[in-house]
Amino acid sequence: MTNRRSQRGCFSSGELARRAGVSPDTLRHYERKGVLARPRRAANGYREYPMEALERVELIRRALSVGFTLDELARFLSVRDAGGAPCQDVRELAAAKLSDVQARLRDLKLLRDELSGTLRDWDARLSEVAPGGRARLLENLTTERPGKPLLPLHHFEKLKKRRSRK
Which of 15, 36, 50, 125 meets the CB 3.0–4.6 Å disulfide criterion with 11? Predict the structure, then answer.
């Protein structure tokens, strides 16, 4: 269904939001963050977005999906909108994000291996305890398994810091 506004070359906030798969609140948030230009207002005060706004919102969503933040996008898009070419900066930031993802994957693999080993140890302990008995599983976390030290605490701290930055 095409409404009268889209026939005139603009979208209402509701129609743009629907077509882009976001909420009208998200559009207003994008405006506040500076990644989407503030639209003109119709005589009734409603927002009227130009047709290009749909491409812009789709670009924003794709960039967010690969790890860029709205603040980063605002910086790059303002340079681009002013006629500049922030391509090298965009590429450098994407490379840094990839490096961070690779480091997180290494940390997560270590954590996966640690948890896997812990579960094997706990299964062995549980098999030696009567049903309903105590195997002291949590206390086992404070000791080393034979031949395998616990994952150093700083790995968990790094994971928490990375999560809190997002």
Answer: 15
Per the CB < 8 A criterion, the answer to whether 8 and 2 are in contact is no
Read off the tokens for 117.
């080993």
Instruction: Indicate if the alpha-carbon torsion angle 133, 137, 139, 140 is positive or negative.
Output: positive
Domain total of the chain: 2
The range of the structural domain enclosing residue 72 comes to 4-81
Q: With cut-offs at 50, 70 and 90, classify the pLDDT of residue 5.
A: low
Length of the chain as a residue count: 166
pLDDT at 126 over 60: yes
CATH of the domain at 46: 1.10.1660.10
CA–CA gap between residue 54 and residue 52 (Å, rounded): 5
